[in-house]
Amino acid sequence: MAKFLRIALWKANELYPHIKEVKLFVNQNYIDVLLISESHFMVGTHCSIPQYNIYDTNHPDATAHVVTAVII
To answer: Which residues lie closer than 8 Å to 20 by C-beta, 6 or more apart?
Structure first.
């Protein structure tokens, strides 16, 4: 049986307060790649999801702006 790549997009409007929802979503829906818009991450923001890697971008002035993240 072929395995399909499952990709989703999440408009977070600040990811950190919603991280429990994201964990539940990726695990229940077997998401392979989750694209996050409006993560509002800053240099010191750290989130983790077991068995996933989070790659994010930060605004050049190191403040919380509308930035992106990819969860793989």
So the answer is: none
